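Notes from hallway chat w/ T.B., transcribed later so I don't forget. T.B. wanted the structure written out for a chain they're using in a teaching module, and asked if we could keep both sequence and structure tokens in one place. Agreed to drop them here.
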Amino acid sequence: MNNLGQKVIYQIYPKSFYDSNNDGIGDLPGIIQKLDYIKKLNVDMIWFNPFFVSPQHDNGYDIANYYEIDSRFGTMADFEELVAKLKEINVGVMLDMVFNHCSTDHEWFQKALAGDEKYRKFFYLRKAKPDGSLPNNWQSKFGGSAWAKFGDTDYYYLHLYDPTQADLDWHNPEVRKEIYRVINFWRQKGVHGFRFDVINVTGKDERLIDSTGDIAQEKSLYTDTPIVHQYLKEMNQASFGQDPNSITVGEMSSTTIANSIKYSNPNEHELSMVFNFHHLKVDYQNGEKWTKAPFDFMKLKQLFTQWQEEMDQGAGWNALFWNNHDQPWALSRFGDTGIYREKSAEMLATTIHLMRGTPYIYMGEEIGMIDPDYSSIDSYIDVECKNAFKELQQKGISEKQAFDIVKSKSRDNSRVPMHWDSSQYAGFSSVTPWLMPTDQDQINVKDELAHGEIFNYYQNLIKLRHNEELISDGHIRMFLKDDPQVLAYERFLDDQPSKLLVFNNFYGQSHTVTLPKAFQKQAAQVVISNYDQQDINLQETLTLRPYEALAIKI
């Protein structure tokens, strides 16, 4: 399985990593200039968000040319230099492939608009219903109808996301061939990793029938349909599957465990692993993203238990993560951004890094970055949160409340420039950046490397994953399932007597747990802890300090 269990992947959002030419936007030469930092962290691969040619209506997830680097990020020569220099420090490259849709600026869509029959078949073009209403009642995930007028014809085109992102019709074998050609182009450039954006919504039913209006039922008409497995097998065979070193991950929108096992079980020859997002919805009131509520710890625990144990039993593989470019910072959601910022950051990291799967670190997470402190909606760029701000007010929510909600859930929270130092623009650029940093006087790389503890703790977690078989290859079983404050699990191998026990206190109060009988009265070696902790003899109970993370071997 390509030593998947030993790998740690670092995610870079190029626009916000480092600006080398002072235009306010991060770029590929900027990443090259920071390779010493990446080397120090000791990760195995970097997932880069898209830097292909794009009008940037959805931060590069609206691709107008899959074969070219957008000039604002650099050149193909810069990319080739980046791949070569990463290879020198044994770090692989994972590119973000957006194949459910392409930009309406893409040549394919423009040719379709010009009447080219071949390319009209690349998209879902449908006429209005006899009564003049839209082809169906599906809603876009960014709000409003999922249909837009196709030029000055009497057709509409489907867009599950922004109107500038036209859904590609995967039923057409020509579309799939083009997609495999793109993957193989980048493989020739030395790329062994691919992350597939919302890949499980590519299998829409050809009939595109109306939904009942219920969100879950509507999603079922285009999410995780059986044909997606067929598409992935074909894609695997035609492209990355020919490379024994390839690492692939599918971003799976509203997926199920049963499907995720199939997507990631090596015997199915589809993908290496899957991202699922259920655990990041436990602070959605009644399932609604644009709400503000404390996270539901028991629900979080139950989801981790289910996904970890059942994926293990079905030989599926999880991508483990708290943060990415689409999420507010986990530390602001599940930790403590004040007195226990360091301890809670380390506890959250321990929780997922010692689980079964491949951990992902989002840039800035390793220094304990938190949501920016903006005071106006004008500070935000993201189309999704600006739309939500308007919609919340239309529902009668006050401007102040609407802003509080958007502030806690906006995707821009994690898109702020990386904090390199405490200067005005956080050492990211010497001009006003595309999105303003805040709090860099307290949280930045320079300060963290000089006298912080979070970065060092992440290095230790990465080292453990590289060297400890129980972590990279072991099975998982949750215990203390009813405890209201602690998430605990054991990692074990069938042929090894030793076990790894992991305890994570999710709250700022000390808490005593009663250990299962099998673990009592055992000598335990501390593998990692975010407090000074000596080896212990386990008794009947164990007391964890605020936000304590403790992993012990018995």
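Follow-up for T.B.: The two ends are 27 Å apart (CA to CA). Might be a good example for the class.
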